[in-house]
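subagent[fold] <- orchestrator: predict structure for attached chain, return tokens only, no commentary.
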Amino acid sequence: MKKKLAMLILATAITLSGCGSAASVDEPATQQQEQPATESSTTDQAQTASTESAPAQDATEAEAVSEDVPSSAIFKEVTRYYNKYYEGDLKEDQDGNNIYYKDLFEGSAQAVMLIDACKPLYPALYDALHENAVSILKTADKTADEFASTAAEDLEASVKDGYPFIGPYSDVRQVSIARFDDQVFSAFDNFYSFMGGAHGIYGLTGYTYDTQTGVLLNLADVLTLTEEELDPILKKKIEESAVEKDDFMDLDESLSHYKFFPKENDPDDYENYEYAYDWYLAHDGIHFYFGPYEIAAYAIGATEVVIGYDELKGQINEKYVPNSSKGYIVKEELTITSSEWDDDTSDLHLVYEKEDPDADTTDGATCKSLALKLKDKSAKVDLYFDYNYNSSTITPYKVVTDDGKEYHYVLVHEFNDYLSLLVFEVTNDDVWLLGQEGFHYVYSDVNTDLDGEFVLTDPNNMYLGQTGDAFGTYTCYASYKVGDDGMPVLQDKEFVLSWCSQNAKSKKDLEVTVVDKDGNELSKETLPAGTHLVPLKTDSKSYMDFKLDDGRFIRINYTSMTYPVQIDGVDIDDLFDGLEYAG
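subagent[fold] -> orchestrator:
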């Protein structure tokens, strides 16, 4: 228990609480293989427009066009990155090495939220996750400052006293959604913190909300048994996970300190400390997590066990048992390793091949291929990307459709914010590459302080991004579903613009079509030169819809939406000022 107390004191101080190969929207590129393959390759001033025709539309309707309520919940990950450097009075260490602007702290914090457009779907959950995200990010800001200040003191003391500075300090928090449906939203945060010394501290914190009420659930809300009835089940699961017989000692005593509602602890009575269980709900059952030092020595590492829903019949609130006939998508915890270290004995994992075998992935290394591998079976894609051990350049997902088909989606961040989606299937202990499709990195709610990257959770409604150049450079997104062949299939007839030219004005009078909030054409109108307009949506083939400063919506039809982009045969740059281009 002394070890656990020391670990908890430290954890309290450091844990955060609270151009490329992808296609544009004009030419979506998909590479598919009908035959399974192992080891195969694929490659601000605004001016109001005239209002001669059509009734004016109010600002609420304007928001409705750009923020249509999705058919199902869409989540985003909001991420903050931190880098802090030494800017104190000392310039050199005792050996004459420059220390000014030396790295003191690096880290990141991540929170998950519903996108703003989903608030009408789940208002209580939206508010709960929003409040949690704001708290997490405020705490992260404070943690970064505190860690950097402590690191600066340590650096100066190391120079004064002649010992090496072990840094930079770090604190990283990553979030994963474990389960979402109409009953619960459950997620977990992985964290790692380092403040010098022999090693850092890592751990996991789970949290579960009632989807309809937004209430943060206690384990007692989910289970109908007591701690005394739960602990023997946990003990058996933990012992079954042991590699060596003596990995876990005094389990009965250790588990006796875990409570549904732990009391406030007396710091002078650590032998009787009480702790809350770390748990979360997933599609396969209730997960329980025990961090280093909690029930075993640090060398044993963390322990996570799962109690399946079918093992808890009569002992779980049936409200929180998932509907097994509904599909889902969750991030997949796959090991990612270099081809130089890979073997033919490991379970499902990802293998990257570096262009330079000697490159260090700690700082980022260019890779030339990626494979999904199961023991000695694999499917490989030739793909150039930078892999950094400390950043999420590869995101694997497990995809389960309503009819029970399983796929593995792997999103790879290529260069210049392009993404490759690799689609695999594992059947009969072999790995098949089903296809590869190009997308673009895109954010939701870009004009807010909580913009974030879309997270895939629903095989029937996946928001994926593209890019285009029909009104300057822009990013946009639309809904896709998992098709019968496992590949993503576009569902929407229009793409919603995300990042785009916000300050463009017309140079000449333009003939436009006034539309309502649903895109229905109302009338023709001449848009005077000097009109400010903001792009909202496009079908990526023939038109783009805009919002005017008076709250109305217009549609401009294009002669060509690919280079050279033209309207009525006139180049787009001859018609508008303020268009922004990337690259």
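orchestrator: received. Logging for downstream: Residues 90 and 100 are 7 Å apart (CA to CA). Helices lie at 2-14, 59-66, 123-161, 219-222, 227-241, 251-255.
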